[in-house]
Structure formats: C-alpha cells, structure tokens
Amino acid sequence: MSGKTAIIFGSTGLTGSYLLDFLVLDDRYEKIIRFIRKPSKISHPKIKDIISNLDDLSAYKNEIHGDEVYICLGTTIKVAGSQSAFRKVDYEFPVQVAEIAAENGIPVIAVISSIGADAASSNFYLKTKGEMETAINSKNIKYTYFFRPSMLLGDRKEQRSGEYLMKNLMQVLSFLFIGPLKKYKAIHVKKVAASMISTVNSKVPSRVISSENMHG
What we know:
single chain; Rossmann fold; seven-stranded parallel beta sheet
C-alpha cells in the first residue's frame, strides 16, 4: 500500500516549518506538496514545491489532490500592513484552499486558528479567525480540525511588538495556568505541529482543539 499525500500551506512559518519536518520523517507519508511563495533551499525526495503567491489558487486546482490538507497561514495586521491585507491571509486564502479541497474530494483538513476565535467578537483579529472557521466548516469536509493555540513559543524571523516580553512573562507564570485557565498556557509550536499530525491520523470526529488538548 502506497503512503499518503499531504498538502501544506504555510510551511515556512513558525508552526508550518515543524509540521513539514515531522511529515518528512513520518513513514506514513510518501509525498508532501507544499505551496510556497519563492523557491526554498530546503529539499527532500518526498517534497514537491508549488511556487505561488496564492492570489489565484484556482489555477492550481489540479495540484491540490491528496489525503490531507494542512493550513498554517497567518499574519498580524502590523506585519500585513492593513486589515484588508491581514484578512486576505487569515481568511480568504484558507477558505479558498478549503473550497478547492472539498471540490477535489479531500477528506481531511487541519487548520491553525487562534484561541478566542469567534465570528461574533468585537476584536477584528478574533472575528476574522472565527469567520474563517465558520466558512471552512460550511464546506462539509468529512474531517475538519481547527487548532486554537494560545501564545506560541518558538523563534520567529520577524519580531512582533511586545511578543517577546509576553512569551517570557507567560513562561514565568505558567504554573498559574491550571484548571479552566490551562487553555491559555503558552505552547511550543513543535507540540502544535505534532498534535496536528496525530489528530489527523486518529480520524476522530471533526472538532476544535485548544492548547491543553494538543498532544504529539
């Protein structure tokens, strides 16, 4: 029996880079299709690169065929430059990917969202994440998983304002995050990536997974 094919969007990001590494090392996977904006120095016999800025995903519909889709796309308004640019990355691209995945009969999709995601939120970031989840759920992909991590631990290429101090503070105060507060405890991206793969392969019913339930 041949191995599985996984498709990744956002493999150069904080969580996506770990996810890619884990998939390459996992014998259950024979092929990994990754969509990236520019050529990468990282190569492996399992990896097939599709160079695209994602602005016209419909042109790559025939490339989006496999067993599972992983979406690790995400930015901030500050990095994106505007609310509309942020929404393009965190809402439009993931929803377009899900739509094509559904049309192509891909049965599993795993998406990085955010703790507090809520389509009814007054916070633009959380509202966008919530609307993204709602839109993807409407595609009725058999196994749909949303991962809502708290503060992510790991080294970013770009420094986000205040994030470094917040990470250190949350690590120092981690002992306080117990019981109902456990989902707010900071989590390393390696654990999030491992949880995505283990959840997808467990074939549990569609669900939202928060930090305290992420296990490698």
